[in-house]
Structure formats: C-alpha cells, structure tokens
C-alpha cells in the first residue's frame, strides 16, 4: 500500500516538474582587458590600414608618408583583433608605393635582419627572426569594423634595461626601470644564474659622477655605466666580488628570453608570427 501511495505522489508531481523552468547556465565571464595606457587614435583612425595573416593576428598602421607626416606613422599589433598595442619604430623607408618599417623587437639576434613589415611587388609581408609571413590587406569596410570595435593601448612593455653585469661564476646582475616618466629613479635589481634571476629588495640608490650604487637588503651593486672598464662590484658586508659590465644592446636576446627577469608577451608581432 505504501509503494502505491509513493507512486501516486510521484505521478501527481510530474506536471509540476515538467513546468519548472530549466536552470540557466551561468553567463560566461568577460575576457579580462590587459592593463595598459590608452592610445588616442582619433587623429589617425580614418587612415589606418588593417593587415592580417588570416589566422586572427592583425596589424593596423598608417602607411609611410613624407618626413613632414612622420609623427603620424603609427603602427599597432593585435593577437586577437580586439586589443591593439603600439609598436615602436626602429627605422624604415619609402619608394613610391613600396615601403618598409622596422619595429622594436629585442628578442631578435643581432646577426639577423631587423624585424619589419613591408609592401613590395609581392604584396605585404612581415619578418620575425627568420620567419616571413604573408599579410593580406582588409577592405576599407572590414578594416573599419576591426578598428571601430578595438581598444588601442600604448606600448605593452613598460620597463627599459639599464645595466647588465656578471661575475666569474656566472651569476648575473640586471637593472631596469620604467620607460616613463623619463629619467625616473624607480630602478629594480635582479640577481641570479641564467634563467633564475630574482628581484632584490631595494633600500637606497647612490648616483653621482663616480657611478651608481644600488643598495639592496642582500648587498650593494656598484656600476659605472659611462665607464665599462671601471671597477664594478657586488658587495655583501666586507666581501667584494668584481663584476664584468656587459653591453645592453649586444645582450638584448639574453635579457628578454633567457635571463629570467621577464616572462609573457611583449606585445609585438613576433609574439605570434
């Protein structure tokens, strides 16, 4: 008898269960927007050409003009067509409808051609390391849709390498600081073996004609950027270790790929292409 009553109750509840609305799936979280300084493109927005590799990567740029229009020769890169990062010019030229423009890419080895994008008789192409990628120019209508829906930022990379030194055991000392404001003293000091450098806790900075001393809780780093041949030291208590100051330009690939101070994309086309 009890089983019969349970079955009757279950049958009576079926209409109510069928009428109950299905639980809504949670709305997908909005994709986080990278922190960056907005770039006002209003002055050049209508002039931006949009190039793509057909795989979701985009370049938006104002093609090279005369030297009088040099300030408008901006270029931006996006890995998704939604967020564009300003590219820093590193040279270029123009001959009629043909042009090329090199951009900042510190991971490029010095013995190779500078990363650049260009237009030639073969169309649009971009070079990263030894990889050449063909690009296609979007129609004015499609390019406008991309630009109108996108967010533009100033350069993604915020820090500038200042000094690099090494002792005879392979321990590196690396100093950087924010790109802006100009001549700021917001230095950071890293120390460690290749691939394992870690930031040190800064306590003071001494900067004068004899060089710069970066005082940290772990020790003092003394470098003279104007005199590579001068004595450079790492001092802990009474122990002083002599260092070799290394040229920044010749060691950019090491700094940005192997040292360990940095990780993540730089915001340049060579992140993906």
Plain-language structure description:
This protein is mostly beta strands and 273 residues long. It has 2 domains: 45-153, no CATH class; 159-269, no CATH class. It is 13% helix and 38% strand. It has 3 helices and 19 strands. The chain has helices at 2-19, 140-149, 252-258, and strands at 49-52, 58-61, 75-78, 83-86, 89-95, 98-103, 116-120, 123-128, 131-137, 151-153, 159-166, 171-178, 188-193, 198-199, 202-208, 211-216, 220-223, 232-236, 239-246. A 10-stranded mixed β-sheet has the order 5-6-7-8-9-1-2-3-4-10. A 9-stranded antiparallel β-sheet has the order 14-13-12-11-19-18-17-16-15, with no helix packed on it. The longest helix is centred in the N-terminal third of the chain and has 18 residues, at 2-19. The termini are far apart. Mean pLDDT is 86; it is low at 1-33.
Low-confidence stretches: 1-33
Tell me the number of strands: 19
Q: Rough shape?
A: elongated
Task: Please tell me the total number of domains.
Answer: 2
Our count of helices gives 3
**What does the radius of gyration come to?**
28 Å
Distance between the termini: 74 Å
Give the oligomer, counting copies of the same chain as homo and different chains as hetero: single chain
Main attributes of the structure:
10-stranded mixed β-sheet; 9-stranded antiparallel β-sheet; 3 helices; 19 strands; mainly beta; 2 domains; 273 residues
SSE layout and pairing:
Layout lengths: L1 H18 L29 E4 L5 E4 L13 E4 L4 E4 L2 E7 L2 E6 L12 E5 L2 E6 L2 E7 L2 H10 L1 E3 L5 E8 L4 E8 L9 E6 L4 E2 L2 E7 L2 E6 L3 E4 L8 E5 L2 E8 L5 H7 L15
